[in-house]
Amino acid sequence: MKLPFNIDLKDKVVVVTGAGGVICSCLAHAVAMCGAKVALLDLHLDAAEKFAEEIRKEGYIAKGYEANVLDKESLEKCHEAVLKDFGACDILINGAGGNNPRAQTDNEYAELDDSKKEIKTFFDLDEKGVEFVFNLNFIGTLLPSQVFAKDMIGKKGCSILNISSMNAYTPLTKIPAYSGAKAAVSNFTEWLAVHFSHLGIRVNAIAPGFFSTKQNAKLLWNEDGTPTARTHKIINATPMGRFGEVDELVGAVLFLLSEEAAGFITGICIPIDGGFSAYSGVWWMEQFFNDKMLLKSDTAVTLYNEIKDLPIIDYHCHLDQKMIANDATFKDIGELWLSGDHYKWRAMRMCGVDEKYITGDSTYEEKFMHYAEILPNLMGGPLYYWTHMELKQVFGINKPLNKNTAKEIYKEANEKLKTLSVRKLLKLFNVEFVATTDDPIENLEYHKKYDDTLVTPTFRPDKLYNFDKEYIAKLGEAAGIKINSLEDYKNALKQRLDFFVSKGCRISDHGFSDFPSKYASEEEAKELFKKVGSLSSEEKDTLLGYLFIFLFKEYKKRNIIVQLHFSVTRNINSEMFRKIGPDAGFDVIGKECDLNNCMKFLDKLSDEERPVVILYTLNPNQIAPLSCISGAFRNVLIGAAWWFNDTLLGIRRNLELVSEYACIGTNLGMLTDSRSFSSYSRFDFFRRILANFVAEKVEAGEYELEDAKTLVKNISYYNIKGRLGI
């Protein structure tokens, strides 16, 4: 143990009751280090002597004694032993106390139907259990004071320290006896301080907040070690957001015991509680962006706790791999958030913000201020959640962002950014795997493992669909093959696929409006390829059908998973497309694709030829029929709620439909589809919705809790981890 400071207790005799417990053994150790001769009293001699031996091994003076704080005769006997061994008591620390299950209710609030439940209510509290708890805490403070305080009369520098609790200030639900007993201890401390004031005996107390010990373990922790709903409530009501560490009590105790430092202090009780006693409960984030956000039941909390700390596998995103390699930094939160996020750009446009403050040449500070001003208008939308989740998780800022708080948050966030970088952000979110989106002609020089994050490429061949001569030439250059024929073209693609695999590629991605409607034969494809540069729309469609079949077979050979994104209409604002370009927020949900073409395509491939296929539709009307189709072909899965669907309702709808029409147990969870390095809060958003969705089934008696724990862990992490072979 390292003391925060040292006080002179040389030749002082300190008696500590309850010294077989974690807290009081720690206090006994501290005063021994200050030179005191310490008598450790406990009902169980072996427990007291165990800690005494540890103290003696460090060269200090200590001995364990058996004593029952509820039996005056036992205390008198112990007193005689201490007198014989060490001399008269100078300081008494009344640490004995505790709770008992017989003195606590199962329910926090009494309800009309409690009589129908198999629970212990207020009316079922055991009289003897309540009496025991009250006696242990109050009588267990009074009797030792009667016995050992006699030694202090007529001496200088003597004091009594009692152990109260935060329950004395704010009684917690379920434990009325313990709360009442500790309130009595606080009151007794004040009474005794006055009573002993003419004798020079100071009497004070400490009121610990919440420390995780054996005494409260069953209230705070489930059998599997996960926090209970009660734990979450306590942490949410503790401004410092954590349990205390036992050695954090030592400083206040030494101060109160020091005659030099606290000689004029008596009758006080010092809270050591992380701000619990100062917290009014009226704080914006208490009811919204707290640990229980979106979790509607204790079961949902339990399931969320199973998955909240699992690593992140982001198997589809648009992050800049060069920035990862260079471990880029950001000087401005406006740059981090608004330099390329078309979600935010769309929202600002909808609220009438001038384009100058969106994609224009204004400063990032100006852009941030305009975004902050419009954010309250987005209540209920994903951006509103994501923004505040990122503020909390990345910057430690847990307050609403609006025009009134914008300047303060901007300054605070920018200060925090000085300590962050791209790779630190990935580490902060526990990102294990990132699959960027890469054109077949790219050199992939930045794809490798950085710290604990593996960055791999995704084969994204969308530019192939136009059969553009110039692009085909670039493909040939990248592959080292001069492309003059269909066979050259195919060989170039094979070479690029092999190159991607050598850089860790495990997944591909195709984005299109609809599936091909026709499929050229080998001979037809050869002839059509000769016409590249002058193909009609119908001919392109036919050649594309051939290309799809070819690529999918090659994917299968290399164990590459295929993602298919469709039903999107891009760049509908022609004026803004000319001014700004693509990926600027002018894409929308497209028409329902022709599912006959989808089925026809999947049927073109045998089970041996077909790779794992993940289907994403931007049009939510097609999730149900696509889910049915997935059941007709091996290794065809329904992807996450994509783009405009990654909302509260969209994610929920996706989970519901997949569970009803397909197989929720094979679901591959979340991905960011993002260009922002702070967007990993979206995984937490998804995991909360998932936990709540599955919890509803458990609460309704439709699903076993243990199966639910396995299910949410598989969906959140293990399914995609297994598919990717990470």
Describe this structure in words.
The chain is of the alpha/beta class. Among the domains are: 13-275, NAD(P)-binding Rossmann-like Domain (Rossmann fold, 3-Layer(aba) Sandwich), CATH 3.40.50.720; 330-418, uronate isomerase, domain 2, chain A (Orthogonal Bundle), CATH 1.10.2020.10. The chain has 27 helices and 18 strands. The strands form 4 sheets. The protein has a 7-stranded parallel β-sheet with strand order 3-2-1-4-5-6-7, sandwiched between helices. The chain has a 5-stranded parallel β-sheet with strand order 12-13-14-17-18, with helices on one face. Residues 282-287 have low confidence and may be disordered.
Structure summarized in a few sentences:
The chain is α/β, with parallel strands linked by helices. Helix content is 43%, strand content 10%.
Shape: elongated
The number of distinct β-strands equals 18
Structural class: alpha/beta
Low-confidence blocks of residues:
282-287
Number of helices: 27
By CATH, the topology of the domain at 13-275 is Rossmann fold
CATH C-level label of the domain at 13-275 = Alpha Beta
Cα-atom radius of gyration = 34 Å
What's the CATH superfamily of the domain at 13-275, by name?
NAD(P)-binding Rossmann-like Domain
User: What percentage of the residues does DSSP assign to strands (E)?
Assistant: 5-15%
Q: Quote the average pLDDT.
A: 93
N-end to C-end Cα span: 42 Å
CATH architecture of the domain at 13-275: 3-Layer(aba) Sandwich
* Helix content range: 40-55%
Largest sheet: 7 strands, parallel
